[in-house]
Amino acid sequence: MKKIVVLGAGLIGKAIAVDLAKSFEVTAVDINPSELEKFNKYKNISTQIADLADVEEFNNVVKDFDLIIGALPGYMGYYAVKQSILAGKDIIDISFFREEPFELDQLAKEKNVTAIIDAGIAPGMGNVILGYHNERMKINSYKCYSGGLPFKRVWPYEYKAVFSPMDVLEEYIRPARYVLNGELVVRKALSEDELEYFEPIGSLEAWNTDGLRTLIQTMNIPNMIEKTLRYPGTIEYIKVLRETGFFDDDYILVNGKQIRPIDFTEKLLFPVWELKRNEEDFTMMRVIIKGKEKGKEKKYTYNLFDKYDKKTEMTSMARTTGYTCTAIANLLAKGMVKHKGLCPPEYLGVDEKNFNFIMDYLKERGVNYSVTEE
């Protein structure tokens, strides 16, 4: 039986560990003991407290495992992938890190390691779907909408953080890259907003975020864009916070102490944004692919609406992100991933067997993507 270590025991890390423990020997690792207490009722999951930011501790934690799952906040993601590669370990990572991932490709190849990054929902499943269709048609346009929200809209934010709060803030400040008529375009986050209708919720607000990631390099498609979804009205108040400086990372002097405004903002927002136990959330995703297939114009639309699982007490974002990751982990464990080096999810979708395996795996867990063809 393969031994898997899950680095990070937050909402998504927990879902990943619990699902993988059905088939593998799993250990969950976190610096925070209270996060690991969630596993007390899961007797088949071992836990370990460790400061993974310490290289020596990191190496000591991962040395006896066959596969590493990275479920750490974005600011630790690149580091975790690089350290795993240096340790000669395969890794599947879900973090939203800023750094250029392909900088690690040569190192991973030299170490004969498979490093699968962005193995979540968006980026993640959007990439898998695009990779599948790009192999079978000439695509002209790819558009992806995604977002996780609470069912209960509570003033002032009508939002709950369903993953690392700092990664949420990244979506509001990181410049958004997209491809328009074959040219790379860079816009401010929160730009080019639009209202779109999504069953069964209604109208949601969408804006540019930097979710294309590796697709910009791996796909020769003239039009590609990714947008984040929130309840209408979100953009205005987030822009007010951003333009006032609450998201700045340059230190300022306050009462004789140097602080970063973004750290202060995170401390204030997290208690307000924290998803309380049994508070229900949902995930919405839509992928639209247009192009020519067998000489004819074709349009594929994938829709996902997923909600909190009362039985398992798993958030929807944990399910949709975590189970994509665990599906890929099972692919890797079964020897169905041959790629060595850096492996973004679109590479996995190319193989029809892999694509169908991931879709079926998600369906078995109640995460259902519906597809329409026009």
What kind of oligomer do you see? single chain
Shape: globular
Strand content: 25-35%
Count the E strands.
18
Number of domains: 2
Question: Structural class of the helix and strand makeup?
Answer: alpha/beta
Strand order of the largest sheet: 3-2-1-4-5-6-17
Biggest pleated sheet: 7 strands, parallel
Given the structure, what is the number of helices?
13
Alpha-carbon distance between the two ends: 45 Å
* CATH architecture group name of the largest domain: 2-Layer Sandwich
- The CATH homologous superfamily of the largest domain is called Dihydrodipicolinate Reductase, domain 2
Structural key phrases:
29% strand; 374 residues; Dihydrodipicolinate Reductase, domain 2; 7-stranded parallel beta sheet; 7-stranded mixed beta sheet; 13 helices; 2 domains; alpha/beta; 18 strands; Rossmann fold
What does this structure look like?
The chain has 374 residues and is an alpha/beta fold. It has two domains: 171 residues, NAD(P)-binding Rossmann-like Domain (Rossmann fold, 3-Layer(aba) Sandwich), CATH 3.40.50.720; 183 residues, 2-Layer Sandwich (Dihydrodipicolinate Reductase, domain 2), CATH 3.30.360. It has 13 helices and 18 strands. Strand 2, helix 2 and strand 3 form a beta-alpha-beta unit. Helix 1 crosses helix 11 and helix 11 packs across helix 13.
Question: Would you spell out the secondary-structure blueprint of this structure?
Answer:
Elements: E1 3-7, H1 11-20, E2 25-30, H2 33-36, E3 45-49, H3 55-62, E4 67-70, H4 74-86, E5 90-93, H5 105-110, E6 114-116, H6 125-134, E7 138-150, H7 165-173, E8 176-180, E9 183-187, E10 194-198, E11 202-208, H8 215-218, E12 223-230, H9 234-244, E13 252-254, E14 257-259, H10 261-273, E15 281-293, E16 296-307, H11 316-333, E17 341-343, H12 345-349, H13 352-364, E18 369-373
Parallel strand pairs: 1-2, 1-4, 2-3, 4-5, 5-6, 6-17, 7-12
Antiparallel strand pairs: 7-15, 8-9, 10-11, 11-12, 13-14, 15-16, 16-18
Helix pairs in contact: 1-11, 11-13
